[in-house]
Design brief:
The chain is 30% helix and 19% strand. The protein is built from 8 helices and 12 strands. The strands form 4 sheets. Strands 7-12-8-9-10-11 form a 6-stranded antiparallel beta sheet. A hairpin with a 2-residue loop joins strand 10 and strand 11. Helix 4 packs across helix 5. It is elongated, with a radius of gyration of 27 Å.
Length: 253
Amino acid sequence: MKKHLLSFAATAGILFSTFSGTASAHENIYTVQSGDTLWKISQANKVTVTDLKTWNHLTSDNLYVYQKLTLLAPHSHEAAAGTYLVQKGDTLYLIAVRNNLSVTQLKSLNNLTTDTIYVGQVLKVTSSATSTPIVSKAQMVMDEAKKYIGTPYLWGGNTPAGFDCSGLTSYVFNKVGVPIPRTAATQWSGLKAVSTPKPGDLVFFETYAPGPTHVGIYLGNNQFIQAGSKGVSIADMTNSYWKPRYLGARTAF
């Protein structure tokens, strides 16, 4: 009888251990046990339910026994420095934006000829020579804007066929993967105010009506690129026309 009791106790101990749920210290992978909920797992492992769902691509709170859950944020240990491990739902555009790259640069870094990527693929996101992004978003904005110097002015225009002031700024920022509002007024109200503009920021002026009625992209050294009555050109903020009309600056970065 004593043997039976000991056997039962040992078995119960094994069962208790099996269903208590454990996480591998090395891999930080948790195996879901009977009775587990996302809340219980989050509390036991000092993470949030939101993080658990995001890191494991969960669309509901439902779990199943023996399901494997990662307790670490993606990419924190799977990919080497300067690389990105493709996850479910990723696109080249999303990866490029997160890493201050254009899609063209990302494809060039990885010798990609199409936009197709797959889960688990490792992509380079920095230059191996510098281990830093190839070019900043601000520089990308300025370089893109300069491509349209000479483009004619068109009221309401927001394509290379013709631009008005905010048509140019919204087109350029969206082109490099930094969405901003369409009009000067909504760009002024919707973006973060800065006391002194840096290259790539937006500078605003009060022209034909009260408030922000004109906008351009600051290039540095008091120069900004803008779509004015004579088309897209570079202007000087300190000249007699623009200086008294300057309202302030906003940044999208």
